[in-house]
Design goal:
Aldehyde Dehydrogenase, Chain A, domain 2; alpha/beta; single chain; globular; binds nicotinamide-adenine-dinucleotide; Aldehyde Dehydrogenase, Chain A, domain 1; seven-stranded mixed beta sheet
Length: about 500
């Protein structure tokens, strides 16, 4: 059995006398495969202290030298791709190919961070007054913290720390206790890439470690990705302690199907975005909005495909969908299916009770498809975070747009149509941070930025791209006068252009 500890000041800290541990499981088999150390206030203190001590030298390292560490890190991630993907699948359950997909999306942020000298080069204005010049530069904020969810153990941390480190900050990562191993390998690879000890640290743990990070006086900024309830708490607590904070949270992503949509493409898009990664993606589509009379045909085409989904261990190359992450999450998602039936939605495909031969104890749920879901139902309002797709029928475009906009979440939203007017009106009017036009999961590329609207985000900065650079830096604007019309004597009025 693995013992998963912390990584502090360039070293593994696997066991601590009297430490608290949580079990980790392989979701494909239900077997316990490890135990993870749950950080205490003192252990968090060691990590933050190491990050604070490493900060001045790293911040003073020229940006091109920091970028070179990122170049080497990118190369190491690519060379270790198979090992990293296997580790993700072992603890999370997603298929190996999907694990590679999340790694590639994470590596794209490292590629973006490799361009940091250009991104930090600042602004200069000469002659803002006679003989007076002004320049603005972005400086690191200090010790940054990342608190990340189970569903992307590689990609979500990689949304944060490559940009933070490239900007000259040090970092403490608190990964999900459900799949904590990958973060330690990322720490080893950063060290191998030449990152000095203490610049990147990993503290495993639960609420105790998170609370210690949120209130630590030497922490400057907190990035969180996870559920809305926890994210709102993290944002409020971090900001109450005077920290810069961003919290990217839960979602209920709608895909509007217009009557003129290419139904073959739409159905494929709904299958991939609804059931890929067993629906455990913050950008998963969990509601299909059937506009006009398209509902019957949509259901007729979706149902056999959902029925035929190949569910199996993530290590089986034939699996399209792996297990859910934990036994508790399986029970929660199955419970939502029970609720949907009780609320009167029509369960067209029932994936409950799936048992796979040889994997009887794995956390599997077959694809589930509901029709005639209405906005007052709990299965419509809540984020289920499993392979459950709800179809809501509306008469027209206006009702579809209103439905999407009235939901409390606004992460992603998509429309499938051949009509440019409808696409443009949807894009303009929809209250969501990321919009797809004939694209079901519009996760922005690394040189744009990721973030939702409404209760899918707390804070005013998205992650990665220029938003990430803004979040992980603070602006310093300097006004200089070396030559020119310098006279003696005090000036008691507000300086204005002469
Ligand atoms: P979660 O909120 O349970 O956990 C996220 C992190 O918070 C973990 O590191 C966890 O240890 C910590 N945590 C959990 N409970 C806590 C508490 N009471 N106090 C302090 N810290 C606590 O989320 P999860 O189940 O790991 O991930 C799934 C959620 O993440 C979904 O809601 C999904 O939509 C969301 N998510 C959002 C995005 C996005 O970018 N918007 C991306 C990925 C996942």
């Amino acid at each position: 059995m693995d013992t998963i500890g912390h990584f502090i000041n360039g070293q593994h800290a696997g066991t601590v006398p009297g430490g608290r541990f949580a079990a980790t499981f392989n979701p494909a088999t239900g077997e316990q495969i490890g135990q993870v150390l749950l950080g205490t206030v003192d252990q968090v203190g060691f990590a933050v202290k190491a990050a604070a001590a490493a900060l001045p030298a790293w911040a003073a390292t020229p940006a091109p030298a920091r970028a070179r560490v990122m170049f080497r890190f990118k190369d190491l991630l690519e060379r270790n791709m198979d090992r990293l993907a296997a580790l993700i699948t072992r603890e999370h359950g997603k298929t190996i190919e999907d694990a590679k997909g999340e790694l590639i999306r994470g590596i794209e942020v490292v590629e973006f961070a490799c361009g940091i000298p250009h991104l930090l080069k600042g602004e200069f204005s000469d002659q803002v007054g006679r003989g007076v010049d002004t320049f603005s530069m972005r400086h690191p904020v200090g010790v940054c913290v990342g608190i990340t969810p189970f569903n992307f153990p590689a990609m979500v941390p990689l949304w944060m720390f490559p940009v933070a480190l490239a900007c000259g900050n040090s970092f403490v990562l608190k990964p999900s206790e459900k799949d904590p191993s990958l973060a330690l390998v990322l720490a080893e690879l950063l060290a191998e890439a030449g990152l000095p000890a203490g610049v990147f640290n990993v503290v495993n743990g639960d609420k105790e470690a998170v609370d210690a990070l949120l209130s630590h006086p030497q922490v400057a900024a907190v990035s969180f990705v996870g559920s809305t309830a926890v994210g709102e708490y993290v944002y409020r607590t971090a900001t109450a302690h005077g920290k810069r904070a961003q919290a990217l949270c839960g979602a209920k992503n709608h895909l509007v199907v217009m009557p003129d949509a290419d139904l073959d493409r739409t159905v494929d898009a709904l299958m991939g975005s609804g059931y890929g990664s067993a629906g455990e993606r913050c950008m998963a589509v969990s509601v299909a909005v059937a506009v006009g009379g398209i509902g019957d045909e949509l259901i007729a085409r979706l149902a056999p495909k959902v029925q035929a989904l190949k569910v199996g261990p993530g290590t089986d190359p034939d699996s399209e969908m792996g297990p859910l992450v934990t036994k508790e999450h399986l029970a929660k998602v199955s419970g939502y299916v029970d609720t949907g039936v009780a609320e009167g939605a029509k369960l067209v495909v029932d994936g409950r009770g799936l048992k796979l031969q040889g994997h009887e104890n794995g956390y599997y749920l077959g694809g589930c498809l509901f029709d005639h879901v209405t906005p007052d139902m709990k299965i419509y309002r809540d984020e289920i975070f499993g392979p459950v797709l709800s179809v809501v029928r509306v008469p027209g475009f206006d009702e579809a747009l209103r439905l999407v906009n009235e939901h409390e979440y606004g992460n992603g939203a998509a429309i499938f149509t051949r009509n440019g007017d409808a696409a443009r009106a949807f894009d303009y009017g929809v209250l969501a941070g990321m919009v797809g036009i004939n694209v079901p999961i519009p996760v922005p590329i690394a040189y744009h930025s990721f973030g939702g609207w409404k209760r899918s985000i707390f804070g005013d900065r998205n992650v990665y791209g220029l938003e990430g650079v803004g979040f992980y830096t603070r602006l310093k604007t300097t006004t200089t006068r070396w030559t020119g019309d310098v006279r003696g004597g005090a000036e008691f009025v507000m300086p204005v252009l002469a």
